[in-house]
Design goal:
Length: 288
């Protein structure tokens, strides 16, 4: 029989005073707290983050906020999937303690004029080259979430690997006293990394999508065998293009700094890829 904590609806907070009251109650008896930041449209990948959070801390907060600051004017803010009722049901089943769901006006009230400008891994020439606005928006909202909820741990998926490194650096640089924890990529059976944007894929494009993970694995195998980085990246990029994708990047980087590498010996290495098929842009990565 499920435990009572598995069926109790999480407390909901939509305003800062309500959030602060809820956090104070969760913190009674010195309970540890983990935060899982999301933009909703939750899938099994998100739920794997929640489960890791529950292993790390006594209490778990999940934020659901579609952050307008990380979308450019031409991107999919208005059409980003929003599934509030389903999200609450999933988080209830996972035994989450609190859902923080602010409106945009709460996070960015009239007169809001401060924005972080992260560097280091945020200027590695990967996502930042394609989406120059992105990490400023991410860093700003995550910094706010950290200061609002004051967690001991924050759980981020490794699928957004550059984002994980940016947030980790930000927390360290700003002395936010939050331990950022990376969670392994959750995949479909055919290897496609789980993402809220996968719902945009047509049947044809969904069938082609696993080529990204397959290519990453093939490239990693070749790099471990000592093949030249430039040759491996060229061949992998061609394979992805042949499958119908428009390739933004396929790159081998130092796993910690995201600096470019010229040899498999420059590691530890991480392979990162971003490509678009139809109107859907997908990203993925693996360690070498």
């Amino acid at each position: 029989m499920p435990s009572k904590s598995k069926t109790r609806r999480p407390r909901l907070a939509h305003t800062l005073p309500a959030l602060h009251r809820a956090i104070a109650e969760l913190r009674r008896r010195n309970a540890s707290l983990a935060l899982v930041p999301t933009m909703g449209a939750l899938h099994d990948g998100h739920l794997s983050l929640v489960r890791l959070a529950k292993r790390r801390a006594n209490k778990v907060v999940v934020s659901i906020f579609v952050n307008p600051a990380q979308f450019a004017a031409h991107e999919d803010l208005s059409s980003y999937p929003r599934t509030w009722k389903e999200d609450v049901a999933k988080l209830t089943a996972e035994g989450v303690d609190l859902i923080w769901n602010p409106a945009a006006g709460i996070m960015y009230p009239d007169g809001f004029a401060t924005r972080l400008a992260p560097e280091g891994p945020a200027s590695a020439g990967l996502e930042d080259r394609i989406r120059p606005h992105f990490f400023g928006g991410v860093a700003t909202v995550v910094c706010k979430l950290f200061t609002q909820t004051r967690p001991d741990f924050a759980i981020f998926g490794e699928k957004d690997y550059q984002q994980l490194k940016v947030v980790t650096q930000m927390s360290r640089d700003l002395d936010l006293r939050v331990k950022v924890v990376g969670a392994p990529v959750k995949r479909e059976r055919d290897g496609l990394a789980m993402s809220s944007r996968n719902v945009y894929l047509s049947a044809e494009h969904r069938a082609a999508a696993p080529v990204l993970f397959r290519t990453l694995k093939e490239c990693a195998t070749r790099l471990r065998a000592g093949d030249a980085v430039a040759d491996v990246m060229r061949d992998g990029g061609q394979e992805v293009t042949n499958a119908g994708f428009a390739l933004d990047y396929l790159d081998a980087r130092h796993a910690e700094t995201l600096a470019p590498v010229t040899s498999p010996k420059d590691g530890p290495l991480r392979l990162l890829i971003a490509a678009k098929i139809g109107s859907t842009r997908l990203i993925d990565n693996i360690k070498v």
